[in-house]
Write a structure and sequence with these properties.
There is one protein chain. With 204 residues, the chain is mainly beta. Helix content is 5%, strand content 65%. The chain has a ten-stranded antiparallel barrel with strand order 1-2-3-4-5-6-7-8-9-10. Strand 4 and strand 5 form a beta hairpin. The radius of gyration is 17 Å and the shape is elongated.
């Protein structure tokens, strides 16, 4: 994770001269889109309290919604929800938190936040299971070109079987309101989980 953040920090300054708008410090937005996830064999086990174990990697698809709001220039609250499903099973997620966006330069900041995350899973092969835990997240946001923001973060979720996630999100901002989003995520809980998302975002 340290190597990933270091690499991004080395790249960001070389693009400062290309940027003509500052969208790094705006954490007031609403986003919606499609999420595709692939869970390795046995990755479903902690979501269903160990009562169902997928014996092979499986793909899931669904929708996500995320939002944020700047309470002050640097304090913010945010929320996220998604569902990914296939014929025999589904995992629903919601997350709410609050944090502080440390503005280092005009086009680089370090947001940190903590909150609560919840998973609810259903399967044809076991009873439903819901569980929540605290989480903390830290990352770096950098505007690397005109209207192009990269947001990289690391998140730890303190379940009995904890979950660690690295996320990289690209936001391509058109004007002051509308943006396109493309993100990639790698998680490790009992086993590996990978996902990507495509969506739109409306800044406020």
């Amino acid at each position: 994770m340290i190597r990933l953040i270091s690499a991004i920090l080395l790249v960001i300054p070389s693009f400062f001269s290309l940027a003509d708008s500052n969208i790094v410090n705006n954490l007031s937005y609403v986003g919606i889109g499609y999420k595709q996830a692939r869970l390795d064999a046995e990755a479903m086990s902690p979501y269903l309290d160990g009562k169902y174990v997928n014996d092979e990697a499986k793909s899931y698809g669904g929708l996500y919604v995320n939002l944020g709001f700047n309470v002050t220039e640097q304090f913010f609250v945010d929320g996220y929800a998604d569902f990914v499903t296939r014929f025999s099973s589904e995992v629903d997620t919601w997350r709410v938190g609050a944090g502080y966006n440390i503005l280092v330069q005009d086009r680089v900041s370090f947001p940190v936040s903590c909150g609560i995350v919840n998973y609810r899973a259903d399967s044809d092969y076991s009873s439903s299971f819901s569980d929540n835990a605290g989480y903390c997240k830290a990352g770096v946001r950098g505007q690397v070109a005109s209207h192009w923001l990269i947001d990289a973060s690391y998140q730890h979720e303190a379940f009995d079987v904890s979950k660690d996630t690295i996320n990289i999100t690209n936001v391509f901002q058109f004007g002051s309101v509308f943006g396109l989003v493309a993100g990639f995520e790698f998680s490790e809980r009992k086993e590996s989980e990978r996902s990507f998302n495509l969506g739109v975002q409306f800044s406020m």
